[in-house]
Amino acid sequence: MKLVICDDDPAMINELKQMLILFFRMKDLELPEINTFRSADEMLRTACSYDLAFLDVEMPGISGLVASRELKKRNPRIMVFIITGFSDTYLDESFDEGVYRYLTKPISEKRLTMGLRSALIRLASPNKTLIIQTKDVSHPIMTEDILMVCTSLRNTEIITTTGSLTCTLPLSYWRTELPTESFFETHKGYLVNLKHIRCFDKEHIYMDDHVSSAYLSKRKYSEFKKRYLLYLENE
Known about the structure:
The chain is of the alpha/beta class.
């Protein structure tokens, strides 16, 4: 496992590095490699890929949010923690970029510990593969790459990070096979992956491919909002 800290404040880098080292020692875990940089430009000039990244949102040159986008190209499963002195200025933009945690300075050791614990569990969890049959072709699909599933009386459309597939598997199959902690049934025939939500209102949920959306029934709005916020907190 490889970690990276990128912040233009050397004191912040040192403080965060010590907190990370303490966490791994207290949990009796192998201490991972921790790389540090004072600018995103310098960090991205290397060819390194990381599992966990702690990025200051405002730095001279490339911002932490832009840097997170580049790091995700190298490793789509990377867990990005945004570090900022602003309470919520970049919160919406961070979630739009798929940031895993948003931590404000001074960093709360409790929030950091909770975020690290859940991130490590997620990184260690196997990504289940489903084999989907479409006519004469079998397609292996990783569950975390599924944005949403839309079913009708005859066909089911599976929208993934790389495109969409059509099959005849019923909704009952998807309710069983998809992990309940990360998928939510928003309306009759719709299952969405909480990981890939970009934003939502009282009638629709918009996915992070900036194209797909799902209906959200009025009776499920409150339940969905609670589930989604709980997912964000625990993830």
